[in-house]
């Protein structure tokens, strides 16, 4: 049996933040520095009614999936931790820091996407971190968030997004892929949440909702830290929202094709972004 080595994942980890790793009492911790004064807030707090509803929905939806992996899914609220981030570890617990829960830019859809990302480290499938069997890499956790988690959690949510200010390309792309009004709405909401997710923590050039990252990855980086640009990360969220693969079909740990949008499945639109993922199957 392999040794138990939990790892903490911060949703803010990026190539542009000053990132380092350290071993503390047997735990490998990935830490990203954030220097925005707006991220500071007083200790203590209380969830809004909608935030509590979201957390309850997550625990009810994913408890059985985690149990099937021998893990216990539980969301902890670390109100006194000011860094606006979230993290998870192998045992199955997910932690939301007070600095995130009280951040002025946190919306309900952004909270959903952040939780989906953390769940994606456990359930996201291939590719996994090359030296950690239990966790999907950062970009794959993002891809799971858009292709599976957001679509499931918003399946019965009939709130319509306000399209004022949403680029026409976003609406057109979602409409081309998702014919039902509700599915198009979920697609737009996921893209907007993905933009907010990345924009909140980006440390490099301005982020565009319509222009794409031009870099093509020579291979898939399966390391712990996200080494791509903020634009690449957003592009991946964008693609995940366009994907029409069955949201209930799991993406396995050892297969890049099943459950995903991929050339090999005949669903090239919505595939993992080429700026970080190099397919090994045609």
Can you tell me about this structure?
- With 282 residues, this protein is of the alpha/beta class.
- Helices cover 35% and strands 10% of the residues.
- Helix 3 packs across helix 4 (138-153), helix 3 (108-123) packs across helix 6 (181-201) and helix 5 (168-177) packs across helix 6.
- The longest helix is centred in the last third of the chain and has 21 residues, at 181-201.
- The radius of gyration is 18 Å and the shape is globular.
- The two termini are 35 Å apart.
- The model is unreliable at 1-39 (pLDDT under 50).
Count of all domains: 1
* Average pLDDT, all residues: 85
Question: Looking across the biggest beta sheet, what order are the strands in?
Answer: 1-3-2
Number of helical segments with 4 or more residues:
7
Decide which structural class fits the backbone: alpha/beta
Can you tell me the residue ranges where pLDDT is under 50 for at least 5 consecutive residues? 1-39
Structure summary:
This protein is α/β, with parallel strands linked by helices.
Structural descriptors:
282 residues, three-stranded mixed sheet, 7 helices, 6 strands, disordered N terminus
What is the secondary structure topology, with strand pairs?
Layout: E1 7-8, E2 19-24, E3 27-32, H1 49-68, E4 74-78, E5 86-88, E6 93-97, H2 98-101, H3 108-123, H4 138-153, H5 168-177, H6 181-201, H7 230-242
Parallel strand pairs: 1-3, 4-6
Antiparallel strand pairs: 2-3, 5-6
Helix pairs in contact: 1-3, 3-4, 3-6, 4-7, 5-6, 6-7
């Amino acid at each position: 049996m392999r040794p138990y080595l939990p790892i903490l994942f911060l949703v803010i980890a990026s190539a542009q933040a000053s990132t380092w790793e350290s071993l503390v009492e047997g735990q490998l911790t990935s830490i990203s520095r954030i220097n925005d004064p707006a991220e500071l807030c007083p200790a203590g707090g209380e969830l809004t009614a909608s935030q509590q509803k979201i957390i309850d929905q997550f625990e009810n939806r994913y408890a059985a999936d985690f149990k099937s992996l021998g893990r216990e899914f539980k969301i902890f609220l670390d109100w006194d931790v000011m860094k606006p981030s979230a993290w998870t570890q192998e045992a199955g617990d997910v932690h939301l820091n007070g600095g995130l829960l009280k951040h002025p830019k946190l919306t309900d859809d952004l909270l959903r996407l952040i939780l989906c990302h953390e769940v994606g480290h456990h359930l996201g499938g291939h590719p996994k971190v090359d030296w950690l069997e239990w966790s999907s890499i950062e970009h794959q956790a993002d891809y799971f968030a858009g292709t599976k988690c957001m679509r499931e959690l918003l399946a019965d949510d009939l709130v319509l997004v306000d399209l004022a200010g949403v680029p026409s390309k976003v609406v057109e792309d979602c409409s081309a892929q998702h014919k039902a009004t509700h599915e198009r709405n979920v697609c737009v909401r996921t893209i907007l949440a993905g933009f907010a997710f990345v924009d909140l923590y980006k440390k490099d050039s301005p982020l565009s909702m319509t222009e794409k990252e031009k870099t093509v990855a020579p291979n898939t980086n399966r390391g712990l830290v996200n080494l791509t640009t903020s634009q690449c990360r957003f592009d991946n969220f964008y693609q995940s929202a366009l994907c029409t693969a069955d949201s209930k079909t799991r993406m396995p740990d050892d297969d890049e094709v099943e459950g995903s949008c991929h050339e090999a499945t005949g669903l090239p639109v919505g595939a993992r972004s080429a700026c970080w993922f190099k397919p090994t199957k045609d």
